[in-house]
């Protein structure tokens, strides 16, 4: 098959209500791209029989491969099979291996299986059944009027397991497409999207393969490189060469690739340099420490932190001098430096970092909303403090201050 048009449909009202994010579609698109299959459409439809059927009918008219996630469970609002049956009139039968597994689950847990659980074992007669090792409901691959339909559970770990083990090799054989599409995401902090694009304009204008796409995110700016080649090795060589050219221009702002996070790289650098860190947080209220300790192995390098939101805590617990607070204020360079020095000393850390500022909604000590001071000190006497003016609401200011603190620590450790 050439010029294959693929489509992904997610079934579930919870997606439309924003209660959960449709991460399945993102993951599936990435997998299909690696097979050289172009995804032309993403769709989300609620748990309504007529609307699901209508979405399926529209997809049938325009796509060659349609992947449906969700709606295969035991309850009355799991309507994926019913909607497809209305469209195709295909017969549903009970898949005995799946039914045996469902019954075994309830027996092992010493609970009574309700009759509606039998719904999960129903499959279309003649379909290729995808046995679900991580959950209850099986998946299916069905051919209908020259269109390939793939039905997968909505639970991400179940969906990914079935796709990786059975759907990926099936589609690889079906398409016979030898072209490989590989992507690489480069992550940057401390530079805006427009500035990054300006500095790389000569590369972006000359792009052919790989393509270069800058994109702003809450955690910085990313560049997605996408290469098409006959083999994975050749595509990876193109990506590495493009990465080298980009980092030659803006490497000072680079901190990771693909799923790497800034905090993961900070923990790695702290371990490499055999250094420990502690934080004193006023307006960020522990957000910085939380980001670091979310990383596995952080206990080896994170001494801890002191949330000193109240002025008395800054003075009586952390040890900021009364004179500094009276003469310079809590939102000042001097206070930020003392906070960093004191937390480093009290928690026996090589690096101390502090955050103080005005998150809003009102001014503090004559300082406008968004004013933030971040200080970094070390046990060997190095010290720096920077003032920032962040925009946004209260929590946006706190998030931006936290991200800036991570950036400061990363660049201190990296260079």
TrEMBL record:
Domain MoaB/Mog: 7-174
InterPro entries reported for this sequence: CinA, CinA-like_C, CinA_C, CinA_KH, Competence-induced_CinA, MoaB/Mog-like_dom_sf, MoaB/Mog_dom
UniProt xrefs under SUPFAM superfamilies: CinA-like (SSF142433), Molybdenum cofactor biosynthesis proteins (SSF53218)
CDD domains, per the entry: cinA (cd00885)
One Pfam match: CinA_KH
PANTHER family: NICOTINAMIDE-NUCLEOTIDE AMIDOHYDROLASE PNCC, NMN AMIDOHYDROLASE-LIKE PROTEIN YFAY
Family to which the UniProt record says this protein belongs: Belongs to the CinA family.
This protein's name: Putative competence-damage inducible protein
Organism whose genome encodes this protein: Oceanobacillus caeni
